[in-house]
Amino acid sequence: MKKFFKRIFSLLLAFIVLYLVKYFYIDAVKEWKLPLGTSNRQDLSTIYLEQDAYFEARRPSYDGIPAHLHTGIDMQINEPGGPGEPIYAIGKGKVVQITDPPPLRRIVIRHKLLRDGFIWSVYLHVIDEKVAIGDRVTAETVIARRLNKYELDYFGWKYNHLHIEIMKFPPLNTNDTYRRRSYTCRTKNEVEHYFIDPLLFFRAHLPGELIKQGK
C-alpha cells in the first residue's frame, strides 16, 4: 500500500514539475521580433517612427476620438514597401481580443514573460486578420496586414502606419471603441500606469541600431 501511494505521489510530483516547466519556460517568450516584415525583424534600423508618433505624444481630438496622449508608437518599414504588407506577432502568445472595424481594427495578444507575469501587445490599423480569438501564435505568425492604398482611400484614412502598444494589463472588455485606454489616457501618469513605451521595450530586447526618428 505504501508503494502504491509513493508511486502516486511521485507521478503527481512529476506532473506538477512538468506543468511548472511548461508554464514558466515553454510557454514564455524567449525571443522577440519586430511586427513588420522587414529583411531582418531583429534589426531596429529596418523600421522608423513617423513624425510626432512617439509614446506620450499629445493627440488632438479627431474623427470622434477625444484628445489624449499617445499610448504606443506609429511604426513604418524603413525599406521598399508600404501599405498592404503583412503584420506579425512580436512573440509567442495567445490572441485574446479582436475588435473594432477598419481602419481602427485591432488585435491583442497576451505574452507570458520568462521571469513572471504577462504583457499584452496591441496591433492597431490592421485588416484581413489571419487569426481568431484563442489562437496560439509565434513570432513567425502573420496575424493581419496593413491597409492597402485602395482601402486607405475607401475608409478616408491617411495613416498607413502600424500603431503598436505594449500593455501591462488585460484589455478592457467593451464594445465602445472610444472607451478603450488607447483613447482615454490624458496624463503621463495614466499612460505609464497602463502601458510600456514600445520603443524602450524593443531597444531592451532587440539588437541592432536604434530606430530612426522619422525619415
Write the layout of secondary structure elements.
Blueprint: H1 2-26, E1 47-49, E2 58-59, E3 68-69, E4 73-77, E5 86-88, E6 93-99, E7 106-112, E8 118-124, E9 126-127, E10 136-137, E11 142-146, H2 149-154, E12 162-167, H3 181-184, H4 188-194, E13 195-196, H5 198-205, E14 212-213
Parallel strand pairs: 1-14
Antiparallel strand pairs: 1-4, 2-3, 4-12, 5-11, 6-7, 6-10, 7-8, 8-12, 9-11, 12-13
List keywords for this structure.
215 residues, alpha+beta, Glucose Permease (Domain IIA), 2 domains, 3-stranded antiparallel β-sheet, 5 helices, globular
What does this structure look like?
This protein is α+β, with helices and mostly antiparallel strands and 215 residues long. It folds into 2 domains: 29 residues; 183 residues, Glucose Permease (Domain IIA). The termini are far apart. About 4% of the residues have low confidence.
Offer a concise description of the structure:
The chain has 215 residues and is α+β, with helices and mostly antiparallel strands. The chain is built from five helices and 14 strands.
Helical fraction equals 10-25%
C-alpha Rg (nearest Å): 20 Å
Question: Which of globular, elongated, flat, extended, rod-shaped describes the shape?
Answer: globular
Question: What percent of residues are in strands?
Answer: 25-35%
Question: Uncertain runs with pLDDT below 50, 5 residues or more?
Answer: 17-25
**CATH level-two architecture of the largest domain:** Distorted Sandwich
Distance between the termini: 74 Å
